[in-house]
C-alpha cells in the first residue's frame, strides 16, 4: 500500500507543481525512498535529510538544541521543526518529517509505537501524533504510510484553496 500512496502523492504533486522534501529520524529515509520508487518522482522529490541523531537535527534542520534537551527527539514540536528545516534546506514547497520510537525499548519517556509526523508548507506547519502497534519494521512501515497520507492531506488542502 505505501507504493500506491507514493504514486498518488507523486501524481498529485506533479499536477499541482509542488516540490517535496522529507526529514526522517525513525524511518531513516524510508519515506523518500518509497517516493523515489515511483517513475517520475524526480519531477517533485527535491531531497531528504536523514536526521537519526540529535546533532543532525540541530545542525542541518535547525531544531534548537535546548528543545531536544528538554523534550527529547520524540516530540510534536521537534517533528514540526524537522519538516520546516527540510523544506528550507531542500528548497521544497512541502515537507514531511517522522520522529518516534520503533523499539525495542521506550525512548525519551515515550512508549514504543509513539510517532510524530510533522509537516510544513507555505500555508503553515504542524504535527500529528500516532500510536502504532507491532515490531520495529511494522512501526517504521506504518510511519512511512502515515507520512505519505499526510502529504496527500496537504496537497488536497493546497489544491482546494
Show the helix and strand layout:
Blueprint: H1 2-16, E1 20-24, H2 30-36, E2 45-50, H3 54-59, H4 65-71, H5 76-90, E3 94-100, E4 114-121, E5 124-131, H6 136-160
Parallel strand pairs: 1-2, 1-3
Antiparallel strand pairs: 3-4, 4-5
Helix pairs in contact: 1-6, 2-6
Structure description:
By secondary structure, this protein is an alpha/beta fold. 47% of the residues lie in helices and 21% in strands. It has helices at residues 2-16, 30-36, 54-59, 65-71, 76-90, 136-160; strands spanning 20-24, 45-50, 94-100, 114-121, 124-131. The radius of gyration is 14 Å and the shape is globular. The two termini are 28 Å apart.
Summary?
With 161 residues, the chain is α/β, with parallel strands linked by helices.
Order of the strands making up the biggest sheet? 2-1-3-4-5
Number of structurally distinct domains:
1
Structural class: alpha/beta
Query: N-to-C SSE series?
Result: HEHEHHHEEEH
| C-alpha Rg (nearest Å) | 14 Å
Look at the structure and name the CATH superfamily.
Answer: CinA-like
Between the first and last Cα atoms, what is the distance in angstroms? 28 Å
Count the DSSP helices: 6
Strand fraction equals 15-25%
What would CATH call the architecture? Alpha-Beta Complex
